Structure to design on (268 residues):
């Protein structure tokens, strides 16, 4: 009876996710993964048995476990990992361009100010940083209700010598973008997308990291140190990611990945 009990408990958690998604009108991609797992339950029988045993059949833990699996599958498939890595490179490129263009703009603003002051002609353009802030915030109700009057009072209390000019502000933006440290926004991104190159193992890195985070959540029954077998991780990944028959993960693949991870950890 235990395998059937484990399947029922695991599928109940999956169905609870699907029902909630439908009710809220969200995460339709998760429902596709759920349907695939429900359809291919025979391939997950041993995995469900292990998950059920490790989580002691606790419904909350099972819900959290499959939430982690669904989120990681949706967000950190090999395609999504590649997109994230490309995004990091794009962020570097954009920052470099901002640094260059902002410096060019700062130089032009300096030139315009000089021409306004010394050419005998004057363009009716912005020169007051306070006015720029006010105009830029014209559609911001919070600014208009809370900050506009205090800023206006400061503007008239302290003349232009107390404020940075436009070129100085833009030049700071340029310098800020020159050599920024590009960091992952969360631990899952750090695990999945910061290695030397993208690979299928990035999914496992993200999933194991997410399970570890769940285990360290306060006030939950989720085990702090959940370690699934190589075969279970491979089965879950194959079906959740809908891997092609000629590209299935094997327990040997997961075992080798874990060995590499341990070697990397010892080198740090």
């Amino acid at each position: 009876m235990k395998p059937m009990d484990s399947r029922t408990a695991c599928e109940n958690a999956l169905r609870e996710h699907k029902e909630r998604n439908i009710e809220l009108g969200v995460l339709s991609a998760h429902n596709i993964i759920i349907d695939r797992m429900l359809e291919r339950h025979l391939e997950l029988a041993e995995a469900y048995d292990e998950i059920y045993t490790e989580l002691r059949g606790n419904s909350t833990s099972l819900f959290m476990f499959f939430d982690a699996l669904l989120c990681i599958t949706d967000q950190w498939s090999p395609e999504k990992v590649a997109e994230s890595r490309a995004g990091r490179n794009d962020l570097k490129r954009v920052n470099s361009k901002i640094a260059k263009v902002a410096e060019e703009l700062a130089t032009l603003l300096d030139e315009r100010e000089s021409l306004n002051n010394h050419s005998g002609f004057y363009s009716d353009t912005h020169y007051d940083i306070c006015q720029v802030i006010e105009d830029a915030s014209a559609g911001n109700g919070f600014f208009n209700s809370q900050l506009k009057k205090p800023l206006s009072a400061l503007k008239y209390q302290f003349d232009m010598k107390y404020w940075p000019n436009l070129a100085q502000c833009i030049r700071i933006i340029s310098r800020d973008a020159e050599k920024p440290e590009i960091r992952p926004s969360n631990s899952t991104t750090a695990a999945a997308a910061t290695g030397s190159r993208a690979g299928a193992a990035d999914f496992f890195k993200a999933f194991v990291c997410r399970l570890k985070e769940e285990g360290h959540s306060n006030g939950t029954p989720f085990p702090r140190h959940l370690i699934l077998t190589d075969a279970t991780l491979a089965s879950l990944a194959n079906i959740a990611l809908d891997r092609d028959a000629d590209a299935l993960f094997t327990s040997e693949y997961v075992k080798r990945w874990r060995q590499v991870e341990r070697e990397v950890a010892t080198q740090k």
Remarks:
- The radius of gyration is 27 Å.
- The chain has a mean pLDDT of 91.
- DSSP finds twelve helices and no strands in the chain.
- The CA atoms of residues 99 and 175 lie 6 Å apart.
